[in-house]
Amino acid sequence: MSDNFPIIVKVPLGSRSYDIVIGPGLLVDLGHWLDPVIGDGKVHIVTDETVFDLYKSRLYALERAISVTVLPVGEAQKSFETLQQVLDDMFEQGLDRNDTLLAFGGGVIGDLTGFAASVYKRGCQFVQVPTTLLAQVDSSVGGKTAINVPAGKNLVGAFYQPKIVIADVDVLSTLPDRELKAGYAEVLKYGLLGDIEFFNWLEDQGENVLALNSEALSQAVATSCRTKANIVAADERERGQRALLNLGHTFGHALEAEAGYGSDLLHGEAVSAGMAMAFEFSVRQGLCDENASDQIKTHLSKTGLTSISDVSQWLRDPDRLLKHMMQDKKNEGGALTLILARAIGDAFIDKGVDQTEVKTYLAHLAKTYA
Question: Is 10 known to be catalytic?
Fold first, then answer.
């Protein structure tokens, strides 16, 4: 490994602080990073069929007691039924609270596994080894864990921090191009919400990130994680500033709900379109200059990310979209909360957004992209 790697970003949470280790080649000696943090107990790995087929030899190379739950691929695994399966496997292995549950996969695996760790015997050790760009820069960091229920996405869960996050950027070479771009949307989010210098860097280096240049990719992951770590440290349970991390997500989750949470629309694709919608809505509200919105649309086009026009089939029913948005966890007292923007790098939390204005905007989109 070169002198530049690994990059270590600390999430400062007092006695629960942990490191995010970022760089190429980290899976080659996974035990080197795990052993000092989790001790010598058992490790139960939760992964999916695709990731397990690619990396099972690396997993079994860990010199300790290993057991594995291998799940089908997809968002459908974030369910009570699959949670029960993971817990049953843990009980069968006789794990105690000093043993470790290791999430080895993308955001679905990380969210489900973290929630299982939070409830198993009231909490056991938990490690994240994210294998998608989206998980490396977002869902593996900060301790949000959850499953989906019929009422909506991520509505049952817990804040539960891992002991360490190990983000090997080499594993991203196996991602389909579509998954990589979905993850890049979350990278872009950090520039848009509070770091215009990072956005400007992405304007120059975004295509290198997507080309899997190790240096550019590691820097993008590290900058994203550093931003998220600072926000999480200031507001772990999303009572205030942490809600900024949901830029584009309220619109995006509504689109995902319309698409049925399946493979037709990936989470990062929905967020990509949702961020464009958030800036466009900000312009319509007189909060933001139209040039900023146009600049974002140009960046989405240049990098091949999902734009508003790409989600037109899920924009047809403004009433249903607004209903989905009203289920958002950030809402308080029946009032709609959105993350809006004054400029690129200057997002803010707007509580009590006028639902009529949102519905008018959604109706405009339905008509525009009919």
Answer: no
- Residue of 242, 299, 324, 329 marked active site: 242
Residue 97 falls in the annotated catalytic set: no
Active site residue 144: yes
44 as an active site residue: the answer is no
Report the CATH number that the domain containing residue 30 is assigned in CATH. 3.40.50.1970
Q: Which residue in 44, 246, 269, 299 is the catalytic one?
A: 246
Could you confirm whether 228 is annotated as catalytic? Answer: yes
Residue of 44, 253, 299, 324 with catalytic role: 253
Select which of 75, 238, 256, 258 is catalytic. 238
- The structure tokens 């280096």 sit at 205
Residue in 157, 145, 158, 125 with CA at minimum distance from that of residue 45? 125
Residues 223 and 247 in one domain: yes
pLDDT in tens, 260-276: 888 899 999 999 999 99
Task: State the Cα angle at 108 between 66 and 96, rounded to 5°.
Answer: 35
Q: Which domain holds residue 248?
A: 177-368
Answer with the one of 150, 174, 198 that is the final residue of a domain: 174
Tell me how far the alpha carbon of residue 327 is from its chain's centroid: 19
Cα 255 to Cα 261: distance, rounded to the nearest angstrom: 9
Residue 242: active-site member: yes
Annotation marks residue 78 as catalytic = no
Task: Give 173's Cβ-side CA count (13 Å radius).
Answer: 11
pTM equals 0.92
| Residue 32 is among the residues annotated as catalytic for this protein | no
- Judge whether 324 counts as a catalytic residue: no
Asked if the structure places residue 1 within a domain, the reply is no
**Has 253 been annotated as catalytic?**
yes
Q: What is the pLDDT of residues 269-302, one digit of tens each?
A: 999 999 999 999 999 999 999 999 999 999 999 9
Q: How many domains does the structure of the chain reveal?
A: 2
